[in-house]
Structures are given as C-alpha cells and as structure tokens.
Amino acid sequence: LYDYFLPLYLKTSNIVPTYGEITYCKEGYEYLKFLNDNYHHINIFAESNGILFDDKWCQLATDNLMNMHFSINAINEEYFKKTVWEKDGVYDVIQKNFNHYLDVLKEKGLSAFNPSVSCVLNSSNYETIVEFVRQYVSKGIQHINFYFDNIECETYNQNKSIKNSKVEEAIITLIELDRVLEGKVRLGYRLFVPTNDMSYYDT
Q1: CA distances from 178 to 70, 106, 121, 187 (A)
Q2: 53 near 22, Cβ under 8 Å?
Q3: 3-state SS record for the chain
C-alpha cells in the first residue's frame, strides 16, 4: 500500500478503504495517517461500526476531515442485541465513541463534516425506523441510510404475492419520511427489495 500505490496517490482525489472494519485492521490507523500526513488533497471515505473508534481515531478523522460513516443498526441496546450482537455493553461503547466524535467536531467548528449513519432493516426492527431517524436528526446528522437484510429480501422476493408485509410497510414509512425531511436530511433507501435472482429485474 505504501510503495505499490505511490503513483496512484498523485492521480486520485478519493480513497475508500474496504478492508472490512478499518479500526480492526492492524495497519488501518497507520495507513490512513500516512495518507493524511503526505497527501492532503485526498478525501478519505471510511466506514466503522464504532466499537474501536476511540479518541485516537477520532482525532485522525477530524484532522483529515474524513467522510465517516457509522453502521449503528439499532435505536438502543435491546434492539442491538436482537439484530447485531448479543454481548452486553457493546451498544453503549458505540454510542460513547460516536457522541465523542460529534463533540470533537463541534468543538473544532467542523459540524458540517458530521458523519452519516445507517441501519440494516429486518423483521426484528422495522418498527424502529422513525425513532432511528428521530435520534440521529436530533444529533445533527444529515445523511441516513437504510438497507434491507439480504436473507429476508430473498424470502420476500420468493413470495411476491405477500401483501401488507413488514417489508412493504417499511418502504412506505421510508417514503413518507423522505417527504417530511426533503431538503433537510438525505435519506438513503431503495424503492424495491434487492434480490440475487436476476430474472426479477427483467422488463
């Protein structure tokens, strides 16, 4: 990364590290710091679940004005345990790190660079869409993404005759929220449920 890509760094303005959770990667911090110290023109787009996004990472992200995205996935610990990880206390760690990052950005007058957040939707959390949006709009977040769980998407698409399903209700909720928030918050979602069956998209 440090040597082989040297010609690339002078020719690009954007880098998206895609090695899974960047804060878990052994070289993750040093590599992004290397880019920050030597190639100020490069915009870094990074994603984190927030668990290891401590003050060291927070300072690096604010120094570089990184475009950060956090996969939060829940409105509280109860739902986090249902949809992500059953271990106690993880959600609180994520919230602590996320809020600290927002505080540092605010202290430095950089709230315009607040991160985006996302939530994966499935049958155990469809009803939390509105509350998730409410929580992060109140924190000053201006870009919120929702994704449908892949396994449940396949189940839904194999039963196209299903009416008034939770999936459809979720899409309707997202459309309604999008109308309410238009011009204030960017809400990302699909108007269809993705599937691996290519014939589904035939017209």
Answers
A1: 20, 26, 16, 6
A2: no
A3: CCCCCHHHHCCCCEECCCCCCCCCCCCHHHHHHHHHHHCCCCEEEEEECCCCCCHHHHHHHHHHCCEEEEECCCCCHHHHHHHCCCCCCHHHHHHHHHHHHHHHHHHCCCHHHCCEEEEEECCCCHHHHHHHHHHHHHCCCCEEEEEECHHHHHHHHCCCCCCCCHHHHHHHHHHHHHHHHCCCCEEECCCCCCCCCHHHHCC
Per the structure block, which two tokens stand in for 192? 């269809």
- For 27-74, what is each residue's pLDDT tens digit? 899 999 999 999 989 999 999 999 999 999 999 999 989 999 999 999
Over residues 125-133, mean pLDDT: 95
Among 75, 142, 162, residue whose Cα is nearest residue 102: 142
In degrees rounded to 5, what are phi and psi of residue 48? -145, 150
Q: One-letter amino acid identity for 44?
A: I
Tokens of 177: 């929220």
The Cα–Cα gap between 80 and 156 comes to 23
Q: Is the pLDDT of residue 203 over 50?
A: no
